[in-house]
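@channel anyone free to eyeball this complex?
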Amino acid sequence: DGGITQSPKYLFRKEGQNVTLSCEQNLNHDAMYWYRQDPGQGLRLIYYSQIVNDFQKGDIAEGYSVSREKKESFPLTVTSAQKNPTAFYLCASSGSQGNYGYTFGSGTRLTVV
Amino acid sequence: GQNIDQPTEMTATEGAIVQINCTYQTSGFNGLFWYQQHAGEAPTFLSYNVLDGLEEKGRFSSFLSRSKGYSYLLLKELQMKDSASYLCAGGGGGYNKLIFGAGTRLAVHP
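replying in thread with the prediction:
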């Protein structure tokens, strides 16, 4: 079955460390997105990519980096420059025609220890 | 500017009907989406409206008025499992980029 997979489900980071969150999709979707969700709040866009080897900053890109070397993969790195990284991170993908709705991964909960 | 507004919280009784409203302002328009999100889980797709009118899908219906920048999600015969956050999202943030509202937390009581 086609879908979008995020790993790990839970991640703990020490102060000053970089960590990378994985996102893989086999839906043949062109566009992929990373969102951050804080408790009781909506989704805030970190980065998005419309096509391989291209990506754009979202509303809260500072302290994060991404790559899009393959259509299926869109990893997110949370760098030490991100001062408040504890949050729920959601990856999503969407097709290019018709219903533009997103398919979401199951999320990664990142906690700084 | 681009903005999506929806109420923060709502409560309802099991078996009742609840309507969750959403108003939007986006620079373009590719459609209006509703997602359901249970605590700690990913959002799941509920409905998509691109033309004015009502779309019915079982217990859930969604309405859109493009001229008013307004949508609502109607949940009938409420069940306890409907307790969740409901996210309104609008297209128009560029190529396939959705703009999300903060979500409406619905609590269903016996």
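from a first look: Chain B has no helices and eleven strands.
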